[in-house]
């Protein structure tokens, strides 16, 4: 869903990584050392997705039925982490050639996308724009805001507003989708503004065409039917209000942790100028081992976000090996090492300190 508009600080942009030339040695090494890592392994994808979904939904069932507050909280945390990992596969779906892992997109939509009301079309055709070399960090990038150059209050707002995502998604699919069938102007607005997992409020999505439009309509219809059924079951008491409230809180927690990850996924120091590939890399973040917690808050390869921007075709399960190879061969002076950070607190402090200087 598109976020609300965040005001930019009335100060000059930071030069930061904007005018950095490409480091050809790093780019060449990244391409040469990882060629054979680009093939996804279907067994890993399916096992990981199914296991994550089973843990998430199983813990969710415990959380909504338990009478003990301690059990509800513990199961809720496990459910949040499991569902968050399962939902994070939407990132892989948006990058993969679907024939390389047959039926995975459909399986993900049935297991996660439709039940959690984030069908794959909300990221497919959107996320690839973020990776376009001429769009990254510009007003045409749906996943970029110069957060480091904005006013301090925008950061907590950026996080807090994400907690409303489950309610917004339920409204979008239970109410707006059916209405848009008979109101063409509403349909245009929904497609342009409420059908993308984007943070740039200026982004407007183009309507899908051909096979993409057919697939979109089918998956959206399924998500809409599920959303309407969910509302009806809560309204008629089939799903107790307490259970529904707990489930929504867990879904909100998933949205918040993902928004926190988004907050530290980039340095957000570009204010609209085109950037070199190396500059884009340095504006992005790796949180590699030995840190352990990123495996939870940046799952499915997202801890190697900067490396992913260098090698977007490498599947998540191979990014660790790619990072080890590049770390071993590139000299200490290589900009490759500059995108690695030890953990979440330092990254939050870094962007917070940047905004505090722009009151």
UniProtKB/TrEMBL annotation:
The chain crosses the membrane at residues 69-86, 106-123, 153-171, 214-235. The keyword Transmembrane helix applies. Keywords: Membrane, Transmembrane, Transmembrane helix. Pfam families: FA_desaturase. The keyword GTP-binding does not apply. It comes from the Bacteria. InterPro entries: FA_desaturase_dom (IPR005804), Fatty_acid_desaturase (IPR012171). This is Fatty acid desaturase.
């Amino acid at each position: 869903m598109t976020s609300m508009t965040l005001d930019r600080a009335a100060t000059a942009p930071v030069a930061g990584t904007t005018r950095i030339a490409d480091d050809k040695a790093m780019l060449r090494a990244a391409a040469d050392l990882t060629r054979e890592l680009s093939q996804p392994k279907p067994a890993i994808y399916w096992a990981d997705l199914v296991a994550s979904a089973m843990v998430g939904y199983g813990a969710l069932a415990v959380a909504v039925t338990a009478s003990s507050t301690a059990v509800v909280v513990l199961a809720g945390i496990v459910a949040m982490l499991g569902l968050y990992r399962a939902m994070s596969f939407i990132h892989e779906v948006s990058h993969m050639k679907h024939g390389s892992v047959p039926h995975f997109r459909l399986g993900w939509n049935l297991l996660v996308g439709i039940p959690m009301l984030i069908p794959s079309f909300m990221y497919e055709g959107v996320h690839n724009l973020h990776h376009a070399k001429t769009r990254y960090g510009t007003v045409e990038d749906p996943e970029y805001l110069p957060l480091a150059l904005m006013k301090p209050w925008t950061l907590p707002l950026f996080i807090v507003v994400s907690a409303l995502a489950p309610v917004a998604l339920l409204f979008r699919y239970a109410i707006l989708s059916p209405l848009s069938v008979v109101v063409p102007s509403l349909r245009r607005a929904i497609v342009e503004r409420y059908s993308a997992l984007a943070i740039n409020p200026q982004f407007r999505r183009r309507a899908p065409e051909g096979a993409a439009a057919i697939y979109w309509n089918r998956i959206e219809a399924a998500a809409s039917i599920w959303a309407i059924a969910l509302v009806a079951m809560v309204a008629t008491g089939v799903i107790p209000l307490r259970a529904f409230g707990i489930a929504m809180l867990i879904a909100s927690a998933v949205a918040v942790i993902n928004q926190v990850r988004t907050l530290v996924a980039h340095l957000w120091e570009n204010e609209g100028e085109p950037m070199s590939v190396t500059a884009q890399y340095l504006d992005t973040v790796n949180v590699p081992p030995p840190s352990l917690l990123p495996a939870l808050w940046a799952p499915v390869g997202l801890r190697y976000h900067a490396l992913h921007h260098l090698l977007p075709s490498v599947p998540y399960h191979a990014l660790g090996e790619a990072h080890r190879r590049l770390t071993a061969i590139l000299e200490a002076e290589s900009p490759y090492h500059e995108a690695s950070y030890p953990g979440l607190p330092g990254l939050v402090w870094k962007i917070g300190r940047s905004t505090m200087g722009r009151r």
